[in-house]
Amino acid sequence: MTASESKELDGEFLDHALSVAIDAADAAAKLIERYYAAGFSVSLKDDQTPVTDADVAAERVIRQHLLAAFPAHAIFGEEEGQAGESDFLWLVDPIDGTKSFVRGYPMFSTQIALMYRNALVLGVSAAGEYGETMWARRDGGAFLRDANGLVRPARVAPLPKLTQRALSTGNLKSLTRGPGWQALGDIISGIGRIRGYGDFLHYHLLARGSIDAVIESDLNILDIAALAVIVREAGGIFTDLDGAELGLATRSSLAAAPDWHVELQQHFQGWRDE
């Protein structure tokens, strides 16, 4: 980190920015809960994925909170795109898991992350219906707030022996089309448990020590930006399936306890059928 970066991203600034993001996520989560209980309208985007009036309203609330505190910052949101140009870019997914929201089960959360010069520096994941919120900022640790408002540190679990490890997968369509599918099969055959918790949930479980790895081959950066900061600050490693750093063009994820991440990434070398 350069001297200018150190000054702009000192602990005081990051703590303030994180506090603003938590407040924004909480406000959005309360709004989303009201829609979830009372009903909402659904339409399809050009890519045939659903969007609801709750998504749109929640993103507007988040933008209002962020811009009130940081009017010079840029924001890139799932529903309204990018506004502004700045070294600071807020990444906002008002409802990560809209399909779950529409189907009426509580596997969705509000995701807010901050990038500084293309590096992720803080993240908040507020899952109101599920009953927990997680957050982290660079060099500040990761934390979980439960449904009773109790806050505790979050930490990736010590890695158990192979036959006791738990792996969760999400969207895998691209993985099925190439050699990565066999690689995944080889991994699954040797471990203790395979699950598909999906969306925010398996990253929360990883960060708080309940599972050991997460693999997804089809996503976008808004799905995982906040979660990546949380997992990393909880002691895990979070890259894409190629082992590359995350960025705006990221389309896959490999998140795991450190020792296993190295091994898993080796399995997925050349996972695409180019």
The overall pLDDT, averaged over residues, is 92
Name the poorly predicted regions: none
Strand content: 25-35%
Radius of gyration: 18 Å
Strand order of the largest sheet: 4-3-5-6-7-8-9-10
Distance separating the two termini: 36 Å
Oligomer: single chain
Q: Structural class of the secondary elements?
A: alpha+beta
- Count of helix runs: 9
The main pleated sheet reads as: 8 strands, mixed
The helical percent reads: 25-40%
State the shape: globular
- The total count of strands amounts to 15
H and E string: HHEEHEEEHEEEEEEHHEHEHEEH
Question: Could you describe the 3D structure shown?
Answer:
- By secondary structure, the chain is α+β, with helices and mostly antiparallel strands.
- Helices cover 38% and strands 26% of the residues.
- It has 9 helices and 15 strands.
- Strands 4-3-5-6-7-8-9-10 form an 8-stranded mixed sheet, with helices on both faces.
- A hairpin with a 5-residue loop joins β1 and β2.
- α2 (11-38) runs antiparallel to α3 and α7 (199-207) packs parallel to α8 (221-233).
- The radius of gyration is 18 Å and the shape is globular.
- The model has no long low-confidence stretch (mean pLDDT 92).
